[in-house]
Amino acid sequence: MADPYSELGVAKGANEKEIKSAYRKLAKELHPDKNKDNPEASERFSNVTKAYDLLMDKEKRAQFDRGEIDAEGNPTAPFGFGGGSGGTYSQGGGQQFDFGNGGADFGDIFEGLFGGGSSPFGGRQRSAPPPKGANVNYRLKVEFVAAATLDKQRITLEDGKSIDLSLPKGVEEGTQMRLTGKGRQGPGGNGDAIITVHIKPHPFYERDGNNVRLELPISLKEAVEGAKVKVPTVDGPVMVTIPAGSDSGKTLRLKGRGFTPRTGSRGDELVTLMITLPENDEALKEFVKDWKSEDNLRSSMGV
């Protein structure tokens, strides 16, 4: 990969939103699951992911723009070295979460550059450090409920070892987690493992920001008379009171039953009531046959 900007098809001055949008579009097109017989697409997917990861890291992007590191994140020369934070993983939005401390110690390099030596610049000239091994990309499929409740996820790495990952707050489709040193071996140390999260769709939950939406079927009797019914949530079923005289479309709010954002309180579950009538119920047909209502339910629509 020569240039992360051209790899993603964005301008050098692109903002985070533009970079994220370009990455998602390309990742969807090039994902290995959709291109099993196209190794070139798989390689491009890897390059696109590397480009996205570099550009969403403000420090590394600045180093690349200054020519201090190349597109792989390696120093371009002894005078263009770039530091790196050890033990981190990052989200799609560029936020980093530390697993531990690390990074290169440049004290001896500065000593060589500005101390005595045979270099024409007045210091000992040092060769660029050996490159690290390649990063390894993983696709982690997470159940909808697990993403909402931040359940730990087990993943098996390329070396056969399994680890339990804690999902970060604010996890969403496309969130990336970086495991430093869990990639392939190289002369300068191991590369990283880059894990892209994919949240599986749910048969009856939908995500709305940090909220979870649910359409709840209720009977006509429950709607008219009111009732206490059991309602599913991502944390398990709870009893909810249906107010008497509820219409289809009425929404009840269950506090704190949604997704957990990076900052602030947890979202809610929004339960939309849907009156469901039985098919070919003769008793119900007989009940409404002579029922007359003076209300014009569609008057607000001008009809």
What structural class do you assign from the helix and strand content? Answer: alpha+beta
- Strand elements, count: 13
CATH T-level topology of the largest domain: HSP40/DNAj peptide-binding domain
Q: How is the largest sheet built, in terms of strand order? A: 8-9-13-12
Distance between the amino and carboxyl termini: 63 Å
The share of residues in helices is 10-25%
The biggest sheet amounts to:
4 strands, mixed
Can you tell me the number of structural domains? 2
Uncertain runs are: 78-121
Instruction: Give me the CATH superfamily of the largest domain.
Output: Urease metallochaperone UreE, N-terminal domain
Instruction: Look at the structure and give the mean pLDDT.
Output: 82
Order of helices and strands: HHHHEEHEHEEEEEEHEEEEH
* CATH architecture assignment of the largest domain: Sandwich
> Strand portion, in percent?
15-25%
